[in-house]
Amino acid sequence: MIPEIEIPGHSEEVLAAFPQLSCSGKALPYESDFCIGNEESYTFLEVVLSEIMDIFPSEYIHIGGDEAGKQAWGTCSRCKKLMREMGYKHIDQLQSHMIHAMEEYLNDNGRQIIGWDEILEGGLAPNATVMSWRGEAGGIEAAKAKHKVIMTPNSHLYLDYYQEDPTQSEKKQIGGYLPLEKVYSYDPLPKELTTEEQSYIYGVQANLWTEYVMDENHAAYMLFPRILALSEVAWTDPEYKSWESFRKRVNTHVPQLIKRGINSYPLSTYLNISHTIDYDKRAFEVQMTTELYPYEIHYRTDGQVPTTEDPTYTEGETITLRDSATLVAGVFRDGKLLGKPTTQRFDYHKGIGHTVKWLTPLGGGYSAGGVETALLDGLRGSITYMDGRWLGNVASQSTIGVIDLGEPTEINSVSTKCMHDIDPWVHMPEWVELSTSMDGKQYEVVDRIMSQTDPKDTRLRFETFRFTPNTTARYLKIEYHLPIKDKFLFTDEIVIW
């Protein structure tokens, strides 16, 4: 067992009890960072770590290092004095300063440190092991620098994420969507690394953060069967991995877990629908997969719930859809539909192939494959903002973009779907406004549509803002206005007819 003591951030509870260790010296709400320029911070942490070492004999001590706010350091006289004395040019170097000091203290006591990938910022401590959680970039950087790495990317190994359709789940989680197949698909050895550099990838770790996990039964529900997929990721050479083999085995194994009193998730009836676009044919090429085995999938393309009388889908098959269609598919067993069917809308609309020019800053790391093309590529987002199809922005309270259709075009309908999931700071726009123009200079407002989502609603919500311009225009300007600053906007395809 390896303990984790969070520094320099995530320390609200410490600073509430010992406010003198913060930059303000006061017990302020939401202040979470130790004052780096205060020698008392180091004395306190050494006492804590000394007691931790007495309790835990492990070679490694995890010192956190993630999600420090750092804002207070920029205005703190003691932190600024330390920066001048050390010749530091960037705030990130203050975090590195504390991490280095704690590593030296632990090394002197025969221990080694592990830290989240933020410890790379400002300079990596000499002997640190890096846990790469914000994707793989931190792990790749650390391995290239010949540091030990544990891969734990939130995209594939955060087990506090939903493993079922969040809109249908009875159990509230922090957000995200991480089905069994995605866990199993993870390869912890990045192709960007040489064989020698890959040798510094020491293993993988899955994380189950428990803000929303109330008891052991709930924890088991989140862990199983995804922890079985993680085990095979960890010990199986990628060339021998087989989702087909694992799926058959896990469908046998889960009932045995439940029979033994383990509250395993029973496997999902939700279908994973993936698609690409054939621009020459102006068509969508669609495929579906399921966690269940044996399975029987039936589907319709007119928005109606399928029955066993409708076409059967075989995995690996491609369904071609043109123009507009609402695909509804379900998993059947013994002639009965299991759970609720899965629905996906497809529209080969007038905007596909064009681009969005953003007039406001974009940021946040969710580019959906290209900030200018993502919302006009025909690829719809799924039930999670982490699927690579939702465009996310945290840089502006109002996000404004302009679409140039290339020539005057008859426009009868424009729609855009947004997401609301406030636990990971994703907020529904307060309103969305559409304007049109012939010359790209003078715009006429079509409408401003107010959101029907309660800003305080903690459930995962989706809302489509639909406009009916019934006009001819070359340029469309769309503005998304969030109710709160510094929160994420996530928006899906802008559909133009």
**What structural class do you assign from the helix and strand content?**
alpha+beta
Oligomer: single chain
With helices defined by DSSP (H or I, 4 residues minimum), what is the helix count?
A: 12
Find the count of extended strands (DSSP E, 2+ residues).
22
- N-end to C-end Cα span: 58 Å
% residues in beta strands: 25-35%
Which CATH C-level class of the largest domain is it? Alpha Beta
Shape: globular
For this structure, the CATH topology of the largest domain is: TIM Barrel
Uncertain runs with pLDDT below 50, 5 residues or more? none
Characterise this structure:
- With 497 residues, the chain is of the alpha+beta class.
- The chain has three domains: 11-260, Glycosidases (TIM Barrel); 272-347, Immunoglobulin-like, CATH 2.60.40; 356-496, Sandwich (Jelly Rolls), CATH 2.60.120.
- It contains twelve helices and 22 strands.
- It has helices at residues 12-17, 39-55, 71-75, 77-86, 92-108, 137-144, 154-157, 180-184, 195-198, 216-223, 226-235, 243-259, and strands spanning 4-7, 60-64, 112-116, 129-132, 149-151, 201-204, 272-278, 283-289, 296-300, 312-313, 319-322, 324-333, 336-347, 356-358, 391-393, 398-411, 414-420, 431-437, 444-450, 461-467, 471-481, 489-496.
- A six-stranded parallel β-sheet has the order 1-2-3-4-5-6. It has a five-stranded antiparallel β-sheet with strand order 14-16-21-18-19, with no helix packed on it.
- A hairpin with a 2-residue loop joins strand 12 and strand 13 (336-347).
- The N and C termini lie far apart (58 Å).
